[in-house]
Design brief:
The chain is 26% helix and 22% strand. The protein is of the alpha/beta class.
Length: 232
């Protein structure tokens, strides 16, 4: 089944967050992944530029979520303690565990720590009213999901807690996993956090852009999750 790769802009009063930073053209070539719309172009399509992003929430440190490491030099990055421990610890000695990480992304995050540009989270924490992060684990040891209060209720941006709708709907775990038990428990946790199952957004399912309204006329691959789905 094909994978789509998403970066989400979370627009709050006076501040714009990103969930994840994708990967750049060089990494796409290295990993044989096609970039349909670079992040800069996606932001521009909704009237934003990289300099408008004040904070970046990293769901986990895999190459397709923590790349473009030089694009947002002034942003504060939000990461779970458990994820930094995981991606810099002894598990990374094993190719089976480290193959989805880019060491340069990890090194860049360590550099941000020393520059005072990382906000660490330990479990479930509120970043601001209506915006919270929640440690799930499973896919990686420190994976976090984001819960956002929108006009249609609490939306959970699941990232790779569930790659596809079928993962959490049918309790079918994705095969790239650090802990199957945590991944399965995460499906229930997301249901508890979201206003309904229709408010959970998986991390890589192409159906997301079919289900949600387009953010702008004529742009098929940018959607609004704060509006009711047109399908699903």
């Amino acid at each position: 089944m094909p994978l789509d790769y998403y970066v989400w802009a979370i627009q709050r009063p006076g501040k714009t967050y990103l969930l994840d930073t994708g990967f750049d053209a060089a990494m796409g070539k290295q990993r044989n992944r096609q970039i349909v719309r670079p992040i800069e172009a996606g932001l521009a399509a909704i009237g934003l530029a990289p300099g408008d992003i004040s904070d970046i929430i990293i769901s986990h440190m895999h190459f397709d979520h923590a790349g473009n490491r030089d694009m947002f030099p002034h942003a504060t990055y939000h990461v779970q303690d458990a994820e930094m421990e995981f991606c810099t610890g002894r598990c990374m000695c094993h190719p089976f565990m480290n193959h989805s990480f880019d060491p340069k992304d990890v090194q860049a995050m360590v550099g941000r720590v020393y520059a005072g540009k990382v906000a660490f989270h330990d479990g479930d924490e509120e970043i601001e009213p209506g915006l919270t992060v929640h440690h799930i684990g499973g896919h990686t040891r420190g994976l976090q999901v984001v819960r956002v209060k929108t006009q249609r209720g609490w939306v959970v941006l699941g990232s790779d807690a569930a790659h596809f709708y079928a993962n959490f709907e049918q309790y079918r775990p994705f095969p790239v996993v650090e802990s199957v038990a945590d991944m399965m428990a995460g499906y229930d946790r997301m249901r508890d956090l979201a206003s309904s199952i229709r408010h959970i957004v998986p991390g890589h399912d192409p159906l997301v852009t079919d289900y949600y309204p387009k953010a702008r006329d004529g742009i098929a691959d940018i959607v609004r999750l704060d509006l009711e789905p047109v399908a699903y």
